[in-house]
Amino acid sequence: MLAHASGLPFDDGPPIAPVGRRRIYSNQGFEALAAHVAEGAEMPFERYLTEAVFRPLGMSAELRGSAGADVYGTLGDAAALARELLTPTLVAPETLTEATEVAFPGLAGVLPDYGRFDPLDWGLGFELKDAKAGHWSGTLTSPRTFGHFGGSGTFLWVDPDRALSLVVLTDREFGQWSKTAWPALSDAVVSEETRAAAG
Question: How many helices (H) and strands (E) does the chain have?
Fold first, then answer.
């Protein structure tokens, strides 16, 4: 489910592909995963997420509905998460390594609102840049860059090779503007960081 290889559709409904055969972005998969975690933790998933992740990282974020689409927080919250993913203190390094390696290699799929990729590499919860052309994280981030973006016009990427991360929160829904602005902004940030490191 974390690798979007469960065969479940984007929203509610029966599976639309066998497990491990196609990369299908699925909020329903995250709902099922949240229910599984809640059962194992013997508490509501919202409470688990708050107590195990948000509060230890100093975040004020909240889950207000779907585990796949309804986390609300501040730019500071997103930056705290990016810092954790860049230099883990809560997440075990081995777990982060596993989460940022390709799960179910070779699967083709559709990156929501971007189009079909073959392969569409995904880790455990993170989309992986790898060798994708026209990636939303720009042309200057390394192939090891991983992250996520959402329909709310928000994104977070981490480039472990550059020891750099970038988070953006907006009040505009994802659209054509995002496909132009995000890569340009990402390239500008990487260029500035490269200049600063050299000078």
Answer: 5, 9
Question: pLDDT tens digits, residue range 52-71?
Answer: 999 999 999 999 988 888 89
Q: What is the torsional sign of CA 138, 152, 178, 166?
A: negative
Q: Is residue 9 part of a domain?
A: no
First to last CA, the chain: 44
> Is 1 inside a domain boundary?
no
Sorted by sequence, the CB contacts under 8 Å of residue 174 that are 6+ apart come out as 113, 149, 150, 151, 152, 153
Torsional class of 181: left (φ above 0), alpha (ψ -120 to 50), beta (otherwise) = alpha
Domains of the chain: total: 1
Average pLDDT over residues 23-28: 92
Calculate the CA dihedral of residues 88, 92, 94, 95 and round it to 10 degrees.
-100
Domain that residue 70 falls in: 23-198
CATH number assigned to the domain comprising residue 47: 3.40.710.10
pTM beyond 0.85: yes
